[in-house]
Amino acid sequence: MMVSRSSPKNLQEQDIHLFQAALTYEVQPPHTYTFHNINILKDHIFHPSKFTFLSVHSHIRSFSKTGQWKKLLWFLKPYQVLAQGIWITDEWSGEYFHWLTDALTRWTAVEGKTRVSLIILPERYQQIPYVQASLQLLNIKAYFYNTRKRLLVKELILPAHTAATGNYNEQIIQQLREKFIGKIHTTPHRKLYVSRKKAARRTIQNEIEVIALLEEQGYEIHCFEDYHFAEQVALMQQAKVLIGLHGAGLTNMLFMPAGGQILELRNEGDSHNNCFFSLASALQHQYYYLTNTGNTADTFNVEIIVNIKRLAETIALMESR
């Protein structure tokens, strides 16, 4: 099915090329597979009866075939046995954005549709606070396996990725939001700015000026690192506007009721990183953007300078709507 996304509310003609490739996306129906006597070799899924790796379900990037087949040496190691489990992760799933939008959407696609409810996670996920907290909020039980041993799963439920990373099955991502926040019976009223001043990379050089303007406009300033995951969810349920630099904090729009306003501060000329534009559309939020001068074309490491006058104009436009 071809999905047509809502264009940015303040789209300028000279910026159409930044969003052109993301304005439409073909979504495949969610698929779930059931396999028996499957082996997990660290983070690779091996199907012994077909003598093949199910790599499309466990990895996003390609990898060395030689290195993959060396994993078969793990059959010489001690192993664990698990009767049933659901696999939802890939090599990026431990990161905040990917855990919420890629991994938990796979769980959402099968939740309630199979008698199996236990998800399988590498043991290192036990040390990731937002993983533990989100599992608790969603009442998900997990089996954390020892990645230094082979894991034999008697019955493996394997939901496919619901979309390529940075893209979304709208129905499923909206279902995940409802599982987190339920039905909201109060009108969202808070205007939030998420700061990256504590981040190691991708920051705003003139953030003091940005914050001064936003505080004048009634915005709250937050560093999400200061909050427990459940506190972030509760805060976002009350938000009607979220502003932030391209980064993981914008993922929290997932916890805003539909109809919110999102303003993403983008790196000038970046036509590749449209995951938050696409997420806003999938969650039925109004998306605005502001391009900013950066010290590199590499959005992952950029430091930007925000044009305060243009920021004020964009906020005024959002307020008028």
Description:
This protein has 321 residues and is of the alpha/beta class. It folds into 2 domains: 2-26 and 183-320, 3-Layer(aba) Sandwich (Rossmann fold), CATH 3.40.50; 32-162, no CATH class. It is 28% helix and 26% strand. The protein has helices spanning 16-19, 55-58, 65-70, 96-110, 129-137, 170-181, 207-216, 229-237, 275-282, 308-320; strands at residues 2-4, 24-26, 32-41, 44-47, 52-53, 79-87, 119-122, 142-145, 150-159, 190-194, 203-204, 220-222, 239-245, 261-267, 286-294, 303-305. Strands 5-4-3-9-6-7-8 form a 7-stranded mixed beta sheet. The protein has a 7-stranded mixed beta sheet with strand order 11-16-15-14-13-10-12. A two-stranded antiparallel sheet has the order 1-2. The model has no long low-confidence stretch (mean pLDDT 94).
List keywords for this structure.
10 helices; alpha/beta; Rossmann fold; 321 residues; 16 strands; 7-stranded mixed beta sheet
Ordered list of secondary-structure elements with their pairings:
Layout: E1 2-4, H1 16-19, E2 24-26, E3 32-41, E4 44-47, E5 52-53, H2 55-58, H3 65-70, E6 79-87, H4 96-110, E7 119-122, H5 129-137, E8 142-145, E9 150-159, H6 170-181, E10 190-194, E11 203-204, H7 207-216, E12 220-222, H8 229-237, E13 239-245, E14 261-267, H9 275-282, E15 286-294, E16 303-305, H10 308-320
Parallel strand pairs: 6-7, 6-9, 7-8, 10-12, 10-13, 11-16, 13-14, 14-15
Antiparallel strand pairs: 1-2, 3-4, 3-9, 4-5, 15-16
